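Notes from the 1:1 (GR / supervisor)

We went over the backlog. Supervisor wanted to see one worked example end to end before approving the batch request, so GR pasted a single chain during the call. The sequence is below; no edits were made to it. Supervisor asked that the structure be written out right there so they could see what the output format looks like.
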Amino acid sequence: MAISLKLDFEPIRPRAVSVVAVVWLYLGVSWLAIAFVMLPAFVMMSSLAGSFFFWPIGVYWFGVAAIAGFAVRGALQLLQLRSRGRQHLEWASWATFALFLLFTLHLCSAFGSIPTYYGTSTYFDITRVVWPFLGGTLMSLPFVFMARALRSDEVRYAVRDAEVRRGG
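Structure output shown during the call:
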């Protein structure tokens, strides 16, 4: 017996809406599952190490988990062509882009700082930062593309028309 959802109208959903919503559903659920496992592990590693070495990574994990929870709800609403879902996923896309860039800059500062022989000071080697920066930037660009796709006229008009048909 198949479970079906009966709608009182047949919305015309743009392909960009379906793709972005499904991508965010996958990312959100998988990131929440990873955060469910990694956050307790992060706390244990920090307590075992006796230092705050792992805290910056934990802050990023908390950010990813918060964005993922927000995005899953937005993706489910966007599949129903609700304007709130479009706004939530656009916000989640920009927030993930910013979080990935912050994490990239954090890693670049760690990779580029080289202590001197006596350990009294450090100098910054730009050649050790180029590839991590390019990699992090390229990994964050799909979130910009998703946010821009959600801003397109086709998506906004489809969501608006669905809201009008629903009467709200």
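Supervisor's comment: Residues 15 and 155 are 9 Å apart (CA to CA).
Batch request approved.
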